[in-house]
């Protein structure tokens, strides 16, 4: 083998246009990936906003429930005397929220003002 043979490049040459094409393909892939991520992020933001709106609505409802439980004429010493709930557990009320002192099942609205939120029996206390 001659000296010149050893000096020949052993690296295969690639045309710059091939590399440019590969880079362009990669850029296109990256761009579509970024667009996908942007769409996902926009969707996540939209979902988060819907949840915040729902939480805000729940907070307003809770405040209304507390206010009604304090101002309703059927609420006496924190207990609602209008409703007699036959099966409290069926509607998710635990025994600590029920008063059975007079052989009925009355909701302690001081502990569970959510009952008042949409109650059709609300009447303001008369002074
Ligand atoms: S608003 Fe309804 S649930 Fe609440 S205390 Fe009055 S009657 Fe009872």
Distance between the termini: 116 Å
* Largest sheet geometry: 2 strands, antiparallel
Tally of separate helices: 2
> What's the count of strands?
4
Structural class: mainly alpha
> What are the distinct ligands in this entry?
iron/sulfur cluster
Quick overview:
The chain has 127 residues and is mostly helical. 48% of the residues lie in helices and 6% in strands.
Kindly describe this structure.
With 127 residues, this protein is mainly α. The chain has one domain (16-116). The protein is 48% helix and 6% strand. It is built from 2 helices and 4 strands. The strands form 2 sheets. Strands 1-2 form a two-stranded antiparallel ribbon. A two-stranded antiparallel sheet has the order 3-4. A hairpin with a 2-residue loop joins strand 1 and strand 2 (79-80). The mean pLDDT is 87. It binds iron/sulfur cluster (SF4). Iron/sulfur cluster binds at residues 68-69, 72, 74-75, 80, 82-83, 109, 115-116, 119, 121-122. Iron/sulfur cluster (SF4) binds at residues 68-69, 72, 74-75, 80, 82-83, 109, 115-116, 119, 121-122.
